[in-house]
Design goal:
The complex is a heterotrimer of chains A (about 90), B (about 130) and C (about 725).
Chain A: H1 2-18, H2 33-57, H3 63-88
Helix pairs in contact in A: 2-3
Chain B: H1 3-32, E1 34-37, H2 39-45, E2 51-58, E3 63-65, E4 68-74, E5 81-87, E6 99-107, E7 110-113, E8 119-120
Parallel strand pairs in B: 1-2, 5-7
Antiparallel strand pairs in B: 2-4, 2-6, 3-4, 4-5, 6-7, 6-8
Chain C: H1 3-28, H2 31-60, H3 67-72, H4 79-85, H5 90-111, H6 120-141, H7 166-194, H8 199-230, H9 241-266, H10 270-293, H11 308-328, H12 346-378, E1 382-383, H13 386-406, H14 417-440, H15 447-477, H16 482-492, H17 494-518, E2 521-527, E3 532-535, E4 538-550, E5 553-564, E6 567-578, H18 590-594, E7 597-600, E8 602-604, E9 609-616, H19 623-632, H20 638-654, E10 659-667, H21 670-687, H22 703-713
Antiparallel strand pairs in C: 2-10, 3-4, 4-5, 5-6, 6-7, 8-9, 9-10
The chains are: A mainly alpha (about 90), B alpha+beta (about 130), C alpha+beta (about 725).
Amino acid sequence: MQFLLVMLVLCGATALIVSPLYGKRRGLIGDDAEQVALEAARDAKFREIRDAELDFRTGKLSKEDYRALDNSLRSEAIELLRRLDAARGVEVAE
Amino acid sequence: MDPRRKRRIRLVVALSAALMLAGGLIYTSFSAASDARTPSQLLASAQSGRSYQLTGKVVPGYRVRGNELDFRVRDRGGRASVPVRYTGEIPDPFKAGREVIVTVRQQGGTFVGQRDSLITKCPSKFSASKGT
Amino acid sequence: MTLGRACVILALAIAPIGALASIYGARTRRREWVAVGRRSVYALAAVLTVAFIVLESAFLRSDFSFQIVATHSSIATPFFYKAAAMWSSQEGSLLLWMWLLSLWSSLVLFLTRNRLRELAPYATAVLLGFATFFGALVVFLANPFQLLSPAPGDGTGLQPLLRHPSMMIHPPMLYSGYTLFTVPFAFAVAALIARRTDAAWIRATRRFGLAAWCFLGIGILIGARWSWSELGWGGYWAWDPVENAALMPWLAGTAFLHSFMVQEKRGLLKMWNVCLVLGAGILAILGTFLVRSGILQSIHAFGGSTLGVPFLGFIALLVLGSVLLVASRREDLRSPEARSYSPLSRESIFLMNNVLLVGLCFVIFWGTFFPLISEAVTGNKASVGPPWFDRYTVPLAIGLVFLSGLGPLMAWRKTTLAGARRSVQGPGAFAVVVLVALLALGVPAKPGALALFACAAFAIGSVVQELYRGVAVRRATASEVAPVALVSVVRRNRRRYGGYIVHLGIALLFIGVGASAAFQHVRDVRLSPGKTATIGGYAVHYVRATSRVAPEKVTLGAVLDVSKDGRHVTTLRTTRGYYPSPDPTAGPVGQYFDGDSTTEVGLKAGLRRDIWTAVQPDVGAMQKMIDGIDKRFPLAQGDTQRFLLTAVAQRYVAAPPPAVFRLIVSPMVEWIWLGGIVLGLGGLIAIWPPPRAQRSRAPASSWSARLGRELSRA
């Protein structure tokens, strides 16, 4: 009985592990590392913009400081979007 | 001042503060520490008035009265033992044969344990058994 | 070859195979081999689950053919504790560790299976490397499935001290924390190998780091609470090496959770973050090792074992590997230029808090390992005690509490001076008011405690102010009632407000620590029934003695009446349980008083103070009676034995000798656990993922418009 159970576990584990080698989803992994990094940077930049707004509205930043910060953050964000589109290979209409 | 230089200055300041703290730490730890001694080491070289951390096993035949304890501690692997008089909280696992750690000071012919410094090790449940 | 043994051997085979497959898949960029590696982790989890079930069911069925069951459980052990007994043993706890590692790794890899394609394979290999090490321990050195033949009729039972519900949760919580700390470690190694040390790996591992931090923190607090309410020494923290071993990775985790944010936003501190994450993982393994090595004197360390050397070798390998890897990738870890921030900014505060946290970690590390250090330097094994630890950790902790209040008041990059002044004055005033109030109320002027209270008040004021401001902002843009606005603003900024709530929890926790440490009353008194002792304004009256005889133990105790100014406050019951020793030379009655004993603490918990007592009955006074009975009935067993024990117990109750009571009145201990709950809540909020925004790939008409659209959707 024990032997049967052991065989069952062994076969199940082997099947699970080896199955991808015979499955449909084979092939090379695309090189989207650049894209992933840019997406993460974009999301972080969006968060920065929203945080800056919240900082302003909760009274930590003066209007001038906020304007300056917001402008520079937004232009950094636009740059990221541009690079992201280039990485994705999307045609850009200016 | 350009950011690079600012960062370098901050780094230097932080490191210096850290080194000073570390220095103070290291210095006081050596002077505040109490040496660990086995009973045979205590018998050989105890200085009156200095406090030591005595480690060893409890000898059977000790006397308990409430929270006053008169017992002897022997070497883990030997027979040399020293008497200890201890007042304070007695840990739950304390009994003959158990390993204890207690901070003691020599007074006359016996060693007086520091209040509440008695620690008894839980019995060896974590001793590995050999594999198949 | 039993099923359980086969499973762990299979696990030991799967782990390195999966690791190699992952590395092969990463290098050749073949999707199917990466999948093989990932599925190896799933298979590992499945196989170990089977092994876990086999062992657990052996405990629950009291199958004493398993040596581990015979040495850690018995027929008489209650069901609840039979289940927990598995991890009171070295072998079982290693299996638990490995099982939790495989479960958490499976979850992590499942959640990241479509992202992080560069990093996941290497991380898989590292995690499986850990599994290989622990698997080798379980298979070769600490086999939980060792059989006994012939199987004994009954086991030796669970250590009486461990019979407490906390013992069910404390190890699984702690181990979940430890194993979860290996996940950021694995991804950090992967990021270094793949040379992808940008924001992507932080974003992926931040949540797991936060989860690890929560589990470990809660595990530590459960242990502290167990110590306070169960153990007879009347404290919750002793700077014991094993306690410290769990605290150090937690501190490193706290540090990197903050410095992660600086790297995400500004791209700074890359090298620092990598070192912190690697350090936290190594400290977690070090913590696992300390409990079972016997190299440091501790009440936890369960004696020396043969596992010390392999663990040390593994840790040395981890340290060496990490140092080499970081050194070889230091070019990638250079921060970009021209990223400055003002001293009045969150970046600056986070940097300071990191310095304090790492400093705290170093102090604790030094004190914990001092016996080995001093042995290496002077030849003598010397150790430092709690006073030394307190002297250095308390100022650092006070500084941290202060910073935790200052951080929420600062903006990123730069806070306008006027804005900073406006933000600080509210909480600052509150702190001063609290300080003055405390002094006016007659609280003794202990500088450390008062500084701590002032800083905690500052932190609480800061969090409350920020929550209030957030609600005001929300109500200005979307007309909602205050409670709804609070919920929405927290939901839309989970990280920020989750973090604020964690700071609130920390402040409450430290208020509890400060009050209970600085203003505690402790007395040891010897009382006869009818007598009264006073402590901290309370009168404690010894009403009567109690006793109970059960097959597994004899209990002697006392009932105490506590009153203040004549009014009854509470009734405390405290007992001492005496378990029989297996010594055959002891008599039928004497054997009970010769074995292990445990204390049942009498505890009245309250928000303002806890009243704690433990009794030490004077068994010595009964010794003559016990010896007499043992001499006359040396072979008494079963019912006769019980009858004799009852006679002794009743004699104790009828004419109780004076007993020694430890009495403690400790203010605000419950605030520690309360703070812990708030901390956990804040952590949960911070972890909870926000709804994913839709990202469309529509071409942009103009960049600003598109930015506006994407921002509003994010």
